[in-house]
Structures are given as C-alpha cells and as structure tokens.
Amino acid sequence: MFNPTMLFQMKSMMDRFEKNHPKFPKFLKVVSTECIAPGTIFDIKVTKANGETIESNIRLNEEDMDLMEALKNLSMQQ
For residue 10, how far is the Cα from the chain centroid? Predict the structure, then answer.
C-alpha cells in the first residue's frame, strides 16, 4: 500500500532534482520515446568523487519491453 505522505515527499524531491538537473529529465524523455527497442544497448558509467569509475551495459531484449513500457508509464504519471 502506498503512503500518501511518502508520495508527496517523493514528488517534492523529484521536482527539486529536475530543477537542479534540467537536462537530465529531457534526456530521459527523448530516450524513452525514441530509443527503447529490442537491441538497444544502455552503457552506464558512474564516476565517484574520488575519480574511480564503475561501468556496465545491458542490451534490451524482447522480454524487457514490458518493464520498459511500465517504467515509461510510471514516469508519465508525474
């Protein structure tokens, strides 16, 4: 069961994140509308404050499409 107070707090945090990083939500919107298909590769690289990097990638397959659609729908409810 969802806690309405927690949802309100999450919305507030998301609004603040979007204000601090305005390009990122726009990037995610383009990716979700133009790039999600079987065979799409996500390359992810995180650089820690100390300069150390962690990298990984995934290639979407047909079985991943239901999850991708659900995540896209969830983001549209904001």
Answer: 15
Report the alpha-carbon distance of residue 31 to residue 12 in Å, rounded.
Answer: 24
H or E stretch covering 49: none
Q: CA 52, CA 64: separation in Å to the nearest integer?
A: 30
Residue 46, φ and ψ in degrees, nearest 5: -120, 130
Q: Tell me how long the chain is.
A: 78
pLDDT tens-place values along the chain, 78 residues long: 668 888 889 889 989 999 999 999 899 889 888 889 999 999 999 999 999 999 999 999 999 999 988 888 876 665
Question: Using only C-alpha atoms, what is the Rg of the chain?
Answer: 15
Nearest to 42 by CA among 52, 28, 53: 28
Structure tokens at 58: 């995934």
Alpha carbons 73 and 24: distance in angstroms, whole number: 18
